[in-house]
Specification:
Blueprint lengths: L9 H10 L12 H5 L4 E4 L1 E3 L4 E5 L1 H6 L13 H11 L1 E3 L2 H5 L14 E4 L19 E9 L2 E8 L8 H5 L18 E2 H16 L6 E7 L4 E8 L6 H8 L3 H17 L10 H25 L2 E2 L22 E2 L8 E2 L12 H21 L12 H22 L3 H10 L1 H15 L8 E3 L2 E3 L6 H15 L7 H8 L13 H24 L4 H15 L7 H12 L7 H14 L17 H16 L5
Antiparallel strand pairs: 1-5, 2-4, 3-9, 6-7, 7-10, 8-10, 9-10, 11-12, 13-15, 14-15
């Protein structure tokens, strides 16, 4: 990596001096949603919050959205710090403040209002979304850059009237009230760091996600965590208006989303006919949520997807990393304990995504016909049927990608050899789903029934075995189990059986069949195909891939570092760490230069050791 501090040239200095970080001034509470769908927001005046320090700033993301020039130095200058604090170090003047006639200096109150948005949340008493939404967040505004708009929001900016605590206890809370946690309106630095490291790793690996732009730290570990995405709307931003039978607002919200997606060039070739545009919208939801749920299942990502559409963005992007995890194995029985209820499991997320598509079918029918039909009428709607088909299409795409087959090989197999792909995927799933004979076990934040096989390991090691021993050889049953066994597997779990032995043989036979089919089609030797697969698979199925547990431990390590890491140091560490966790086999790879930043790199090495230790976990 080397020293990421860029050379500061005179033109950059002049640009900064002339513009004074002009784009930051656009982030002032203004957002088109306030005027397009005013019923969807609660507006708050905000005031300056003192005592904050910039704990992190995402230079890469800031360049992408045009907040700083592309050749801006990778350096948190005094002027940049001041601009970040001036823009994002704010707190709302909430209902409690107004009821108690709190007087704040006029020069600290910002001229524009900022919005908390309304959306459906299952943890609220009202299941129609009349009282729920952003409980400790506000939207700072929107930035436009190179024909795209980006939404910016901040978590930890004060207690709003939309939090569960406010509505369960039927009282307004003062921001910072120590008698409640989530309802106090504050966020913490470790939350921001967890979201930062997790989201940057996932973003590097092609998953849609909100990203952390900045972390502003206050005393006692409190923080404002600033987040960015091209469009921060969730399905729940629409579902509340559906549940309330509020057709005019629902229609305007859908229209707003369509317009945003087209302007951002995320959607192309939108039909001119309004009714056809709604069909286009529904088709996009089918594609988005079938792909997302297949990707989550195959990459072992748990985000607690549920019927309310709260924990996911409209484009399938991950939001709110409080309960998001990536498992090392397919721990499909894990459930998060949220005191009052258990979460969905990772394998149930497909059915939740399916129900979300079913709800979108109900919404579009409601808008087009101006009459709301029962959700049950859409159980077998063509969009839901198509969701099921596309889900398995993406499962087939994913298994070929995990094998390490390049796009040319994979496209041929997907077009011509579906049955052969599914035969191999069935064998793969048999081992992936296997659970320990120990049964369900308590874990710190819930319950799990441990998976026992690490399928990344066999996909990485099998092609290397074939290259070294020859294509006519096979792993013995014992060798196979020795490769796939995880740290959770007991002697009883690894006990041989006739069915297990047959599956081991079938796995290798169907794996080699796919290799042979590709070799025959492209007139290449199986050895040449396997060599390409081996190189790609070694990157895709890296031994030490992050898990939720490893991120938690890494953040603890950073938080406890003495002396405390500076913002620039965290930025260097983040880049080194996420580059190592980039599993894209087509990316140009260069070795890390651990000598360039010795202190940071020692810490990164320790972080990677943590990843290894928790590689099988949750």
């Amino acid at each position: 990596m080397g020293n990421t501090k860029l050379k500061e040239s005179r033109p950059v200095k002049e640009t900064i001096k002339e513009n004074g970080y002009a784009k930051f001034k656009d982030i002032n509470g203004s957002h088109p949603l306030k005027s397009n769908v005013p019923e969807a927001v609660v507006e708050y005046q905000v005031r300056t919050r003192h005592g904050g320090q910039v704990a992190f700033f995402n230079f890469e993301l800031a360049r992408e959205i045009g907040l700083i020039p592309e050749n801006h130095p990778h350096e948190l200058t005094k002027e940049l710090k001041e601009e970040i604090l001036k823009t994002f170090s704010i707190v709302i003047i909430n209902e409690y403040d107004l009821m108690n006639n709190f007087n704040y200096p006029k020069d600290e109150i910002r001229p524009n209002t900022y919005m908390a948005t309304r959306y459906l949340q299952l943890q609220h008493p009202c299941k129609k979304g009349t009282t729920s939404g952003d409980g400790r967040s506000i939207w700072n505004g929107q930035v436009n850059h190179k024909g795209k708009s980006f939404d910016i929001s901040s978590c930890g900016t004060g207690a709003t009237k939309l939090s569960p605590a406010c509505n369960i206890n039927k009282k307004f809370y003062q921001t910072g009230d120590p008698t409640v946690s989530y309802g106090c309106g504050y966020s913490e630095k470790d939350e921001g760091l967890s979201a930062l490291f997790f989201s940057e790793v996932l973003a590097k690996n092609g998953l849609e996600t909100e990203r952390v732009l900045a972390i502003i730290e206050f005393q006692k570990g409190l923080a404002i965590n600033v987040r960015v995405h091209e469009n921060l709307l969730r399905p729940s931003h629409m579902f509340n208006h559906l549940k309330q039978n509020n057709l005019p607002t629902l229609k305007r919200m859908v229209d707003y989303y369509i317009e945003r997606q087209v302007k951002n060039k995320a959607w192309k070739n939108l039909p001119q006919d309004p009714k056809s545009q709604y069909d286009y919208f529904l088709n996009k939801m089918v594609e988005t949520f079938s792909r997302m749920s297949a990707d989550f299942e195959d990459q072992y990502i748990f985000c607690w997807l549920d019927w309310d559409g709260d924990n996911i963005l409209m484009d399938g992007g991950i939001i709110d990393y409080g309960s998001v995890r990536q498992f090392g194995l397919y721990h499909h029985e894990y459930r998060y304990d949220d005191v009052q209820r258990w979460s969905t499991s990772i394998k149930e997320q497909k059915q939740k995504a399916r129900y979300i598509v079913q709800t979108f079918a109900q919404i579009i029918d409601y808008i087009k016909n101006e009459k709301k039909r029962s959700i049950d009428d859409f159980k077998n709607h063509h969009s839901v049927v198509n969701f099921d088909k596309r889900f398995f299409d993406y499962k087939n795409i994913n298994i070929l990608s995990k094998m390490g087959l390049n796009s040319r090989y994979a496209d041929y197999l997907l077009e011509n050899c579906r049955k052969d792909i599914e035969d191999f995927r069935e064998d793969f799933t048999y081992f992936e789903m296997a659970k320990s004979v120990k049964g369900p076990q308590k874990v710190p934040d819930g319950i799990n029934w441990n998976a026992i096989y690490c399928m990344r390991d066999i996909l990485r090691e099998l092609p290397q075995f074939l290259l070294s021993r020859g294509m006519d050889n096979r792993l013995s049953e014992t060798e196979f189990l020795d490769i796939v066994k995880s740290s959770y597997a007991t002697k009883a779990d690894l006990k041989r059986s006739l069915r297990k032995d047959l599956k081991i043989r079938s796995f290798q036979k169907n794996y080699l069949k796919l290799i042979t089919l590709v070799a025959k089609k492209f007139k290449e030797t199986p050895e040449k195909v396997i060599l390409d697969v081996s190189m790609r698979s070694s990157v895709i199925n890296k031994y030490d891939r992050v898990t939720g547990d490893s991120i938690t431990s890494i953040v603890e390590k950073i938080m406890n570092k003495k002396p405390k890491l500076k913002a620039d140091e965290i930025s260097v560490i983040l880049k080194e760490f996420t580059d190592y966790q980039n599993l894209n086999p087509d990316k140009d790879r260069r070795p890390s230069n651990f000598e360039a930043e010795k202190e940071q790199s020692r810490l990164v090495k320790g972080m990677l050791q943590i990843v290894r230790e928790f590689r099988d976990g949750i």
